Amino acid sequence: MKEKPVLGVIIGNRDFFPDRLVAEARVEIRDVLNKLQITPVMLDENQSKLGGVETFQEAQRCADLFKQHRDEIVGVLVVLPNFGDEKGVAETLKLAKLDVPVLIQAYPDSLNQLDVARRRDAWCGKISVCNNLYQFGIKYTLTEKHVVSPQDETFQRDLQNFVAVCRVVKGLRNVRIGAVGARPGAFNTVRYSEKILQRHGISVTTVDLSSILGAAEKMDKEAATVKERMEKMRNYAAMGRTPQEALVQMAKLDVALTDFMEENALDATAIQCWTSLQQNWGCNVCTSMSIMSENMLPSACEVDVTGTLSMYAMQLASGSPSALVDWNNNYADDENKCVLFHCGNWAKSFLPDIEVSTAPILGTSVGEENTYGALAGRTPASPLTYGRISTDDTKGIIKAYIGEGQLTDDPLNTFGTRAVAQIPDLQGLMKYVCRTGFEHHVVMNASKTADILKEALENYMGWEVYQHV
After folding, report:
1. For the whole model, what pTM was predicted?
2. What is the average pLDDT score of the chain?
3. Which CATH architecture describes the domain 176-468?
């Protein structure tokens, strides 16, 4: 069962506005959060005036409450039922030191209730709160509408998107990635800066491929763990013409990789493949990578560490698996369509016709019999968010591009894992990718989450982000 996200809630107040607006907002916002399966952490009515925050003493009490739930709170919601006290909000966040995303909501006034008894002025108060947070250096997120009722569907969508932003930020600040083996010599494109990543909380644990292969080599094919993994693979995908000996090799390698991940508490992996695995072990690792990605432990080939970081970010935003793909081919003469391809490691979610197969292109150099374990399947029409995170070592920064489009059911007669994408102004996007030095790998996710990623990566992570529209 998924855990409910926990938000700290600050209800702003200013004493020369009607108190009952605060009391009403407290009940209303709790009901909305309960409806959306979000757990609030907020002051009780007996801890401050009506559970709101105005004075410095109330800010201290609210900050102390937040500190008690530091490990649970993923973000803070600021509610302004009236003008609110901007210093009270800012001081609470400063004292709590949570360093989490903050969403600012302000109530709208009614034209027939602009009297002293019901006047809110939250339109103006929101500007003042944001001004103070800006002065304090506290990052914050805005609602689609400047003022909006908690019952408005746009606010509830804002809130759900904000929770996704919180997920991305928390996940990226603590992610642990395993780099298995050396980057293939011919793939300069996947070079990255481990030091720049670490500066942003992203840890990379390296292991020599020989250590993994050595551990796999020592395993008895009759071992319970190997047999269990073989059965898991049979249940995961149709085996096609995969021989038993290749399945044994795939299972041993999978057990060794799983042990490495568990020993190092890893969230994702990037694995050397082309062509060491085929030459020195005799199979592809694609099926294992697909299973990991399907289980929300994303795995990228060719030791593309920032590629798997991109997969992880998109997974956090959408709650669904991601896939690493090549920007691979034009689609006939349609300038806004292209073919996405890889020799076979996409998560099962993308491949309703999934089958374990071989990698024909790789097989031309290493022998196709050494490439069992690659997957074949066609991704059907679905929503598409695409993007890429990369370290720009010359500038000393992390940068990204993101956008949305569609995966289509257009005919595509080829092998491997494959899809057709339709993207507005695709030619302009390709110019941007080429001119700014991004990799040939991109990540796809069956969602519409570009806005969430933009907010999380640019506003809170502080990265340079281009959103293609």
Report:
1. 0.97
2. 96
3. 3-Layer(aba) Sandwich (3.40)
